[in-house]
Specification:
The complex is a heterodimer of chains A (about 250) and B (about 325). Chain A is mainly α and about 250 residues long. Chain A has one domain. Chain A is about 85% helix and about 0% strand. Chain A has 15 helices and no strands. In chain A, helix 5 packs parallel to helix 10. The two termini of chain B are about 35 Å apart. In chain B, the strands form 3 sheets. Chain B has a 6-stranded mixed sheet, with helices on both faces. In chain B, strands 2-1-4-5 form a 4-stranded antiparallel sheet, covered by helices on one side. Chain B has 2 domains: about 220 residues, 3-Layer(aba) Sandwich (Rossmann fold), CATH 3.40.50.300; about 70 residues, Alpha-Beta Plaits, CATH 3.30.70. In chain B, strand 1 and strand 2 form a beta hairpin. Chain B is of the alpha/beta class and about 325 residues long. In chain B, about 35% of the residues lie in helices and about 25% in strands. The chains are: A mainly alpha (about 250), B alpha/beta (about 325). Chains A and B meet through helix 1 and helix 7 of A and strand 1, helix 2 and helix 3 of B.
Chain lengths: ~250, ~325
Amino acid sequence: MNSSIGNIRTIAKRELVGYFSSPVAFVFIVIFLLLAGFFTFMIAGFFERGEANLQPFFTWHPWLYLFLVPAVGMRLWSDERRLGTIELLLTMPVTAWQAIVGKFLAAWAVLALALVLTFPVVVTVNYLGHPDNGVILGGYIGSLLLAGSGLAISSMTSAITRNQVVSFILAVVISLFLILAGYPPVTNLLVQWASPWFVEGVAAFSVMTHFESIQKGVLDSRDVLYFLSVIVFGLFTTGVVVRAHRAG
Amino acid sequence: MIKVRNLKKNFGPKVAVNGVSFTVEKGEVLGFLGPNGAGKSTTMRMITGFIPPSGGDVSIGGFDIVEKPLEAKRLIGYLPENAPSYADMSVAGFLAFTAELRGLSGTDLRKAVDRAIEMCFLEPVRHQSIETLSKGYRHRTCFAQSIIHDPEVLILDEPTDGLDPNQKHEMRTLIRRMGEKKAIIFSTHILEEVDAACSRAIIIDRGVIVANGTPAELRQRSANAGAVVLRLASGASGTGVKAKLDQVSAVERSVVVSESPLTVRAFPRKNGRGPDFARALAEVALRERWPIEELHTEEGRLDEVFRTITVPDTDTKKEDAQ
């Protein structure tokens, strides 16, 4: 067990070096911070609302992640296959799942770093008023889980193809489905011609439903479980796809 | 050390490897020859556990590559085709990464990296990023990775591909030297490398082993093996020499290879190969007072053997196909 954690750490470390020796991580972090700020202050009207909470900040995260997370995740496996390094990696004494988890954790750490760097918004809201910092923490946890599930899906799509563009588009489409299935304008539309239980059922698959409640500060184990199962599913499927490619 | 038994691989309806069996012991360097697309790389990928076989089994030091992949992989060093590496890392960083995955740490790791860098002459580019390196250096970096843990088994897929003649020579010397203590398989389509580095060679064609033996044994299968070549100074007549040679009872037939300088090749009768045949011809030459400049027995050439057994249109192949 020790050696598997060691292997995961070694692989994650290498990935992180890869992210920071190329512009990928920097571009992601800068764009994420710029867009998050723009949406929070310009579109959602953070100051005009006069409320001491970060709802206008978190509410945009699903849409930001929709494009930014696949951009980080698209190279996870497609690059390995394109460059042939997958052959090197998987003939080392490591299991495929150690490699999958290691690479996933590294990318997740980049996303987490971007989230951590949004701390000025927490400082601002605490300076201006008396927000419920528990709710804010819940929002951050929810956002991190949301990013993780998007990343697991990107990991899966990047294992499918050696072409990064295809991997990116597939991940965006799947993430978009997971967002829209529970997005109020869409569910309202569905209600008109589908039975409520069907709409409920579809919405239960959506990241939105679960993200909304975490964001409100309700850290329900079911919501956490939902995100964790999307992550596990994404990584498991990555393993299946990687294995299928090797079997030819 | 390496046991391969009845290994098979299908990609859909296409059969890439069809029943390959061989063993390699410590101290052996096995050359793996074959035309492009013969199944060399597929076989190596199955041996290293990168792709699962469709049938048959591979065992490395007693560990089955499918049943006990981690134990088996620990014993193997592998240089994949095209020598892939992480372009964004430095040479030393990349080697440290692979050493860590091989379970090395601390001073052992540093020593292993230093040793590999020294053996592969990578010192000048130690801290350089791999993407800035020339092809030869990249290739050696990936090779260094394969020997970082001093493995008992080395699998090298075209280790000299893309190297210049000096580097090729160094690589062969290195392989031969390491072959004294390890079990090595390397694939190539450069035949001279078999002589330079191998103790044994296998020729594979369309997924099947068509020849297996020492380089000398393989050369024996060449059409010219055992023939004696005579080169005479100017003045001698080609047809005259040929007529005289054809009269010798041990000669099956003779051919004038070139008129100037006059070169004649005489083929022995079946089972008539050997030093006696050369001596018989030398006696004829002395008796006839031919101005001999050279007389030697041909060992046969690997490229001829390679061509006759791997080109699909030869007679032997047709028989096989029917």
